[in-house]
Amino acid sequence: MSDFLRIQDVSVAYGDIQALWDVSLNVEEGEIVALIGPNGAGKTTLMRAVAGLNPLRSGSIYLADKALHTLRAYQIAEQGVILVPEGRRLFGGLTVLDNLELGAYPKRARQVRADTLKLVYELFPLLADRRLQRANTMSGGQQQMLAIGRALMGVPRLLMLDEPSLGLGPLVVESIFETIKHMNEQGVTVFLVEQNARQALELANRAYILEQGSIAGTGVAQDLLNDDRVQQAYLGICPAPEA
Amino acid sequence: MSAFMQTLVWGIFAGAIYGIAAMGLALVFGVLKILNIAHGELVMLGGYVGFWAFTALGWDPFLALIVVIPAIFILGIILDRIVYRNLNRLIGEDKIKNSLLVSFGLGLVLTNLAQWLFTGDERSVQPSYAGQGLNVYGVLMPYTRLATLGIVLVVTVALHFFLRKTYPGKAILATAEDYESAELAGININRVYMLTFALSAALAAIAGQFVTFTYALAPSIGMYWTLKAMIVIVLAGTGSVLGALPAGILLGVVEAMSGAYLSQTYKEVVGLVIFLLVLILRPQGLFVRK
Amino acid sequence: MTPASRQSSLFKQYRRWLVPGAIVVILIFAIVFPQQMAQDNIWNLFFLMSLGIAMGQSWNMLGGFAGQTSLGHAAFFGIGALVTRTLWFHGTPFVLAFIVGGVAAGTFALIIGAPTFRLRGAYFAIGTLAVAEVLRITVAQNRPFISTMPGDMISSYNLPARYWVALALAIATTAAAYLLLRSRWSLGILGVREDEEAAQASGVHVLRHKLLALGLSALFMGFAGAVFAYKQISYYPEAPFFPTFTFEALMIAYIGGVGTVIGPVIGGAFFVLVRERLAANLTDVHQVIFGVLFVLVVLLLPGGLLEIWDRSKRIMAKRQTKKLQATRGAEDREGGP
After folding, report:
1. pLDDT of residue B15
2. What does the pLDDT look like over C86-103, one tens digit per residue?
3. Residue-wise pLDDT tens digits, B32-50
4. Which of A29, A228, B84, C151 has its CA 20 to 30 A from that of B224?
5. Shortest Cα distance from B176 to chain A (angstroms)?
6. Nearest CA in chain B to A106
């Protein structure tokens, strides 16, 4: 299978402070790839760079053969690369339905808006129930569902999620990960950043580890789950005492 | 009693114009997050287009809105593309400060251009039915003022409908709330900004048209109307676009009352002093829930 | 020692004298030239330049150093003019009237300063604009009639004297700005500009530093207004309260390079020179050109004209480094020790 998303030697800086150093990674079509790593490693920076919110100091980002790093954020969304940002970032003053409809702003999404909406309501029945409710009156879990629903309205080819489990209870997190898996089975490629390394690795096919702005490791998710260093650093498993 | 009612009514009529003059500025501040000091100049230019339509084409001032609105709407697009677009890449405090300076320079340019083109003489427009109106229990209500109030109400409702119920309107509201999320959803925020600015210019132009037959028109009135609009948006609460109308009417009534019962000469000062007090004591405005 | 490095050390020796030397040259020019020319329009031009420099410097103290954008500086200009003119016409010697005028402006600023500084950023800006307008309208209502110098003052009118006062003020204001930057309050004031919360957290008494910048700024703007009252034979009492004067001060600071001491000097000279030139040739359009110039400066050259100077220095420095690298490279190739 071909490289779908190709991130090549990407460096990003905030003014004089460099956050990412020559990061390269790729996501193949139909995969779920996770990006794990400690707080402040630059995972969100990378996500935002792909989505077009952070400019690159150097490097390039391609989706299939289309260069993304030269496009504006809304154009990247039009290409089918949709980011669910960290912290939900909904349009709080607007209704659930408004948020969802606005998610279908790109032309290709707008054409199939009605059908996509039905799909989203099937996936998240509680959004259908609350469609006229203002977004900022909903709970964290409900808002996350709305955020994902909104992203799905854009008919993504590549769905990116930044910390989807942040601040949510375990049951909700589980339901959300179920949904992500379901979307992947429907053909959506997924690239996600997660603090919760265990859940991310259990969901993903492959993963990358980002530490201090550079890729520190990569591999098949199952292998990483069993790797000693990963276990110690990110899974909270202490090494067995020497016999 | 009827003197009191007359003053009140005058205040409401004046306030309606203040309200619509402020609505555009509130929109720009809420969506683009900039302060446009040249807003008053857009009011002034709107007035001049209407004045030209009246004197050259003999059009009734209300009819002339058909010309005034698109003309200044287009001017808004041009100004956004040439000047204000450059501010889009800034954020927060930086953006507001730069917008103050840039718009102030632009205001100077527009005022002096107007002075050069139209001379500094005061102009006024008096439609044929200017003096006529209703007389309700001794309270005079000229047709021109009633029509002004009516149009302002219609425009306010239309704006509400546009922002809350139409797709482009909701895109504007979304951009105002969280411009990054809006971009992530595929909304071209530069285009949203341009549309919003042009819309605010059109609203200013409507106010300007009313100014020509309610007050007098001259190139120097820009700063006066910018200040008026600012007073109103601070009273309304800087997030509230539709609150501009009740706030404007409140200001109009307070001014009229001060003029009648305190001192005619200081009624302008009253507005400014209230403005300063609200600014210092309750910066989120009077109409916004804390 | 290679020729290149010997050159640079000689240059370094003389560099220390570059700035003081330039200042002396400029001062000598400013004193001698108008006297040599002895023409009214030259005295006038130099007067306006000096006044512009003083106005720009004073606005800069609050807007450039402390980062508080004031759109109401005309209030201080106007108070200075009003108080000075009134006292002077009633028999007070000009020097005394001048001092009282400036002090009145400074005092007013300090009184309204504390409540006004509760506003931040843009709100502060429009708040100051409103205050200035309140004053202007009040003065216009109370003193609607034109203020003209009495006959004896007109017949004894000495234009060069006006210039000397303006020049002295320009020098004093520039010196004050320079000293302020060297004083023990400068770090606090600049800190407030950069990040108010951080400054507060570091123990800087934010309000006091803001008031200091405001007080000085208003004082000197008041003096500028006093000089205006000294020069103008007749004007409407509300005139010095017009926003035009705020905007001139602002423009001068920005065009020259806001936040620096030399910026307003460059800006004042440049602004007035170009304006008078344009006013002579293109009377109607010159204000338009200025507005456009101002917008361009704010958008493209946030550092003002000074930025052009800075950028060219950087380009020169880069070229110097490349030259040194090239000669060193040549040495290496020739097989140095």
Report:
1. 94
2. 999 998 899 999 999 999
3. 989 899 999 999 999 999 8
4. B84
5. 9
6. B186
CB contact under 8 A, B183 and A83: no
Q: Is it the case that residue C54 has pLDDT exceeding 70?
A: yes
Secondary structure, 3-state, chain B: CHHHHHHHHHHHHHHHHHHHHHHHHHHHHHHCCCCCCCHHHHHHHHHHHHHHHHHHHCCCCCCCHHHHHHHHHHHHHHHHHHCHHHHCCCCHHHHHHHHHHHHHHHHHHHHHHHHHHHCCCCECCCCCCCCCEEEECCEEEEHHHHHHHHHHHHHHHHHHHHHHHCHHHHHHHHHHHCHHHHHHCCCCHHHHHHHHHHHHHHHHHHHHHHHHHHCCECHHHHHHHHHHHHHHHHHHCCCCCCCHHHHHHHHHHHHHHHHHHCCHHHHHHHHHHHHHHHHHHCCCCCCCCC
Whether C307 and chain B come into contact, CB under 8 Å, resolves to no
Q: Percentage of chain A surpassing pLDDT 70?
A: 96
**Domain of C97, in residue numbers:** 47-244
Q: Which residue of A has its CA nearest to B187?
A: A74
Q: Which of B180, B184, B289 to mutate to test the interface with A (most CBs of A within 10 A)?
A: B184
- Domain membership of residue C199 (yes or no) is yes
Q: What is the mean pLDDT of residues C24-30?
A: 87
Q: Quote the DSSP letter at residue C238.
A: T
Task: For residues B128 and B62, give the distance between their C-alpha atoms in angstroms, rounded to a whole number.
Answer: 12
Q: Do B183 and A103 touch (CB under 8 A)?
A: no
Using a threshold of 3 CB pairs under 8 A, tell whether chains C and A touch. no
Rounded Cα distance between B216 and C31, Å, is: 49
Give chain B positions within 8 Å (CB) of C288: 108-109, 112-113, 116
CA angle B154, B159, B160 (to 5 degrees): 100
Kindly state the tokens that stand for C126.
């429009």
Give the whole-angstrom CA distance, residue C22 versus residue B99: 36
Residues of B in contact with A91 (CB under 8 A): 173-174, 177-178, 181-182
pTM of the model: 0.86
pLDDT at site A37: 87
CATH architecture of B2-281: Orthogonal Bundle (1.10)
In whole angstroms, what separates CA C225 from the centre of its chain?
Answer: 13
User: Where do the domains of chain A lie, and which CATH numbers do they carry?
Assistant: 1-80+158-163+189-243 (3.40.50.300)
Q: Do A77 and B186 touch (CB under 8 A)?
A: yes
Instruction: Decide if A152 touches B, using CB distance below 8 A.
Output: no
- Where do the domains of chain B lie? 2-281
C-alpha B15/C-alpha B20 separation (Å) is 9
Rounded percentage of chain A residues whose pLDDT exceeds 90: 45
From B83, B268, B283, residue closest to C123, measured CB to CB: B283
DSSP-derived 3-state class of residue A191:
strand
Measured on CA atoms in the order C192, C125, B27, B280, is the torsion positive or negative? positive
**Pairs of CB atoms within 8 A across A/B:** 66
Among B residues 224-253, those touching chain C with beta carbons less than 8 Å apart: 227, 230-231, 234
In a domain, C165, yes or no: yes
In a domain, C2, yes or no: no
For the cut 90, the answer to whether the pLDDT of residue B113 exceeds it is no
pLDDT at residue C105 greater than cutoff 60: yes
In chain B, which residues have their Cβ closer than 8 Å to the Cβ of A52? 183
- Please report which residue ranges of C156-205 form alpha helices under DSSP H: 159-182, 186-194, 196-201
Is pLDDT above 70 for C10?
no
Query: A136-185: per-residue pLDDT in tens?
Result: 899 888 899 999 999 999 999 999 999 998 888 888 888 889 889 998 99
pLDDT score of A66 more than 50: yes
